[in-house]
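User: Structure tokens for both sequences below?

Assistant:
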Amino acid sequence: MKYYLHIVEIMEKELTVRGNAPLYSFLDIQDCLQICYRRLQELRVLVVKHGFENTAEECRFFKEIKPKVFGKLIFFSKLLEFEMQKPEHSQKALRKYVVKNIGSLRHIFIEYKEFHQYLLCRRKDRDREYFCRPGRPYVTGSLSLPYCSDPVFSTTQDYLSAKFTAHTSLIEYLSQRYIQSNCAAAQKSLLRWTGQKVDLVELVYALQASGLINNGNVGIKDLATALEQLFNVEVGDYYRIFLEIRMRKSNQSKLLDFLKTSLHNRIIEVDG
């Protein structure tokens, strides 16, 4: 069992170093996916090589250990899909999309309520049925993946255990990042952007290009969303607006030039 626990420990350390939770960038998610996939494959190799000393050990592995690794893989896989499909230019549409996804994620706890209660109550009376091989792998939808249907590395319910873990983490992550944080920002920020939206877009792109935020590891989308929340403004299609900035025949850095002049004048004013 120590071989398997060691893999989980390594994975958790790698994810801690690579990820920036509670705010994962797109690159973080992709890297974390690779880490989880690699560690899951290593678990399978160890299972084939070492097996289990007894039934109790086998049940513990498929009930607790594999779902930790597999659950992380599912978490980052679904998070990547979410980030790729979420609305880009409307906070209202984004919030609606988040709420819809959280509702879908919660459905599994209703659909498989009996088994979820079994795990929550820490019951063991049906562990042999759920977490021992051989047995017909639990298959539905996309579960035709090798690590879901492999008779050497799957039981009837280990995938569902992993999915419970993943969905719980996803609900918490999406709620904190897109709902609670937005509410907090709306309550705390009294700032209002009173300039033109094109000026704010110029600022967003300038900050992102400068590399001064997160050492340059921040996307236009995330930066624009943060400034929209800070200044209580909805910019809209900032990609289109940036195209308009690029098409200016002169003075493409209009806002930055204005800020430079404003700062210079204030220094002269203060110095007398």
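Moving on to the next sequence.
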Amino acid sequence: MTADRLISLEKVTKRYASGPPWARRAVTALNAIDLAIGNGETLALVGESGSGKTTVGRLCLGLLEPSAGRVLLEGRPFSAWRGKLRGRLATVLQHPRWSLNPRLRIGTSVAEPLVVGGSTGRREVSAKVTEMLASVGLPAEMERRYPHELSGGQCQRVAIARALITAPRLIVFDEAVSALDVSVQAQVLNLIKDLQQQVGFSALFITHDLAAARYVASEIAVLHRGTLVESGPASRLYQASSHPYTRGLQEAGGLLDRAAQNPAPFEVADLGVGL
């Protein structure tokens, strides 16, 4: 563990019980993986459905405990953070409307993480909500609207504002752009990058989209059936991998062909390359 790491997974294994009570069996979702997310960095976690990506996200949020190994936040296990995690961790989900109460106005939803804490006055909360909406490119009038009155991209911006309002150290983006149109994906990815530069949070970007991973992340890890098969700088996605699974993803997404045709740095226009 080094001082510049916010989250560390050390030889982490996670097993789930499966099957009926009379025939229970253990299913290994993660198998002795090592991962780290640096302060102010974005790690993209790439893999097909069922590869263990969401399990990693839940471990990083302290929602699950590993069956073996350790998950450390700032060098300390989650058990040492009991009662002290409020506001430090946040998540943005794939379908933003699922995380927004349809009966609550946008301003109320964005304020909720602060209100739950109970230590912030009403005026301070109102000012913070307006500030957060402005930071994600939404006007103050949005506070009075309901989720069904917003587009998918606007709802995702609201979800990001809601995640940011407590100034978290880590935000887990779990397939946060996969449900959006490609043009809107580009806008949201640019927003995430800009906000990270301004605020300095760390991020775990869970995705099945190789191009999105290459665009938004500084580091990348590839999961296959719970095993970490590749990790390193995101630029590796444009270089032929030595591992057959990663190479298969590259070929399926056409990333190697794109790199051969255009060796220039990755552009927003390259989005839309998925598994």
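User: Anything stand out in the second?

Assistant: The first strand starts at residue 5 and ends at 18.
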